[in-house]
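A favour, since you know our structure tokens better than I do. Go ahead and set the record down below.
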Amino acid sequence: MSFSSNMAFDVTKDHFCIPDERSFRELIVWLEDQKIRHYKIQDRTDLKAIEANEWHIAFKRYLGDLNCPIPPDDKAAVVDWLLGLSVRFEYGDNAEKYKNETAEDVKNRQNNVPKVVNTNPLDSLDFQSPEFRDGVNQLAKQLNINPHPDHLITLKAISKLVKNRLSAEALQNPGEVVHQGKPYPIFESDLGFETGDFVLNNAGKALRLLYIHDLRDLQTKINESLVAVQNITANPKTDTKLGKVGR
């Protein structure tokens, strides 16, 4: 039987593996949300918190509420039992739809489904794997970017640097991207107020500079918009046939 939902978890994916803790938890949440529905929506919060350290407590309680005879540690048996329960509920909700179904019908439908071959290598990447994390940090080191504890934030910084300074246009005209000038003594400037903490003072100076940068960027975009509007409205054409001015 094939299940479908709008949830990001895909129960048909070939690389699903029970020992993969995240995939296992996502499957449990998907089955409860879409098929079993033992809890009310507002009561599924703890079970949906798959990143929480206490998730196993909510999972154990969930199995107890379902009267599952399988111990929580036997993941393969628990998955098999929950899938069987889901199939039973699915059939019960759609008995008229499935009562005339045969194995041959299901097999024929599967054979007639077009095969979609995914050629994008990025879709097979595990963005949380140690290898991917180490690769991002090594690339950041080569580009002189200070790594963030969250490697995905580091990846965003790398992407921004590559887009703004390593594009073909930027390499052809580096002066347009990397402006030369005297460095601004940010930590020697006056913050305007005093926190009583040297580190907080420096953080405040950095945040203020970033805020000013954002304001200047916004002002530049406003100016560009005004120029674009003026180019449209500042040179109206005269249509003598209509006896009026305008386009």
In short: Residues 182 and 188 are 14 Å apart (CA to CA).
